[in-house]
Structure formats: structure tokens, C-alpha cells
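Below is how a single chain appears once it has passed through the pipeline. First comes the sequence as given, then the structure the pipeline wrote out for it. We keep one example in the README because the format questions we get most often are answered faster by looking than by reading.
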Amino acid sequence: MEGLILFFIHIICYWAMVFLYDVDVPKTDFNNAVTSSLKNQILYTLPSTIYFFNNYPIQYNNFLLSIGYLPVLIITSDCYFYITHRPLHTKWLYQLHKHHHTGKVCVAKSLDANGLEHLFGNLGSFIIGIILLWYANHIINIYIVGSWVAIATINTCISHSNFQCQLDSGSHYLHHKYRQCNYGFGLYLMDRITGTFK
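Resulting structure:
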């Protein structure tokens, strides 16, 4: 049940951002991005979220301690996304990823990806910190997990808002423009370390 609730938190945040900020997107680009995003949400996000949280030990206590886990989630997510995203820009793997870079940058393109890329890159970056903490016997309060779902979803959408959202720093826009920089998201820690931050 918790997995389904978390999926709906994601859906509400994602589609609210699409309807708020994707106002001047060419119809073809928008329709292609929406179709691909819906496919990924239904075929990959929904079943993997339900499966994972049916097996995750749900906690309703340790709320304050779990707030302290948010920086771990943010940092591991950023690093994991960089590690899985950067190889997709090599000549060997770009064929899998190039669809994400076609058309105008818009919020709906946030999840417009190849299915494997969505499962291992997008969903993997969201869940990696939760898995690492679980492995270390630190279980996150389910309300904080729900907050993380909302934060991660909204952050991804903001980075694809094409400056429509005032919180968009433009870092990910530069990634779409040049395709050789800013492979991470959020803090861009790995980009700063490896010199690919622009």
C-alpha cells in the first residue's frame, strides 16, 4: 500500500509541474515526451515502487533522525545519477540516450527516456541512498521517504523547466545545449570533482 501512495505522490508532483511549466512547448515535442514519460511511469516506476516498498521495512517512528538522512539521499542520488548518466554520452551508448535530447527541453522530458535508462538511471538514483542506508541498518521514516519522492521529482522537473521556473539554475539546460557537461543533477558534485561542471 505504501508503494502505491508513494507512486501517487510522484505522479501528482510530476504532472503538476508539467501543467505549470510546459506552456510554450511545440505540440509534437510535448506529445512525444508525455507519451514516453507515461510509458516509463506505468511500465517501470509503478511496479518497481510497489515491489520495493512491499519489501522495505516501513517505519513510522524515528521521524527526526530520518530528516538527517536527507543529505545522504541527496548526495548519493547526485553521484549515482552522474555515474549512470555520463556513459550514456559516449559513442557506444548514446544511441540509448539520444531520444532524451531530441526536441525542446521541457518538464515532460524529465522522464522521457529509454526504459532501461529510466529504470537504472532515474529510478536507481532515487533509490540508491535508501538502499545504502537500509544496508547499514538505518530505516527511513515513511513520511520522510514520501518527502524525498516529492523533492526528487520536483527537482528533476525544475531542471527541465527551460527557465520557466524561477528555481531553475540553468545547469541542466546547459547539459542539453552542449551535451558534454553537467551530467549530474542537484548539487552536481561529481561534475565539480571531474571538471565537467559548467
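DSSP finds nine helices and no strands in the chain.

See the next section for the split statistics.
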